[in-house]
Amino acid sequence: MIKLCDFSIGYGHRILISDASTTVPSSCLTALIGRNGTGKSTLLRAIGGMNVGYSGAIEIDGADVRTITPLGKAKLIAYVTTERVRVPGLSCADVVALGRAPYTGWAGSLSELDRRIVADSLDAVGMGEYAHRTMDRMSDGECQRVMIARALAQDTPVILLDEPTSFLDMPNRYELCTLLCKLAHERGKCIVFSTHELDIALHMCDAVMLIDSPRLINLPPAQLLAGGYIDRLFPIPEWMK
Predict the structure, then answer these.
(1) Is residue 83 part of a domain?
(2) Is there a single domain that holds both residue 72 and residue 165?
(3) Has residue 84 been placed in a domain?
């Protein structure tokens, strides 16, 4: 579970989010939306403990992010960036095995349990048959699934994803979000992902966090629509009506 308490963040003299208090529960898929430059990535990085330039508090399962050790964060929060991953010669299983780093000690040796978790994580995202294929020979959609498998292998209650659909075509965008929804509901994960895909956010997610600077609004999609928040922030041009 993620909890924001009187949370404010910005840069320079610009306030992106001010005095926000909200909770994102476990077993919940939450989309983070907002216009460009309003702080979606900034908020995700703060929740992930990579940006501490904020006031208020962020808690993960009751622990203040600022006070958690790096190893503790690695066991609580998995983060999937928007960058394309193409490492020649590195197999999918090797990439997913990196998620076990918080548990393997200084030697980095995988136990039989670690190997089973890696295999299970690949199977969970439909990539079990690709375990020995190298990442540089795969599509963007396949690579994104492998990176999600790595986050699953990290075995954290919270998974954060920064625009995971940005390089995918429409069918793969829906397939990926269907996968995220399944992982949240079946594995009890608290999953938050930033996106520009309003249709996906409003029709496939349990909740939507909307940044309407300096406000942060967190509601189920139906309530967000009924309250007029989407129409106000993303008005439909007259020529499209």
Answers:
(1) no
(2) yes
(3) no
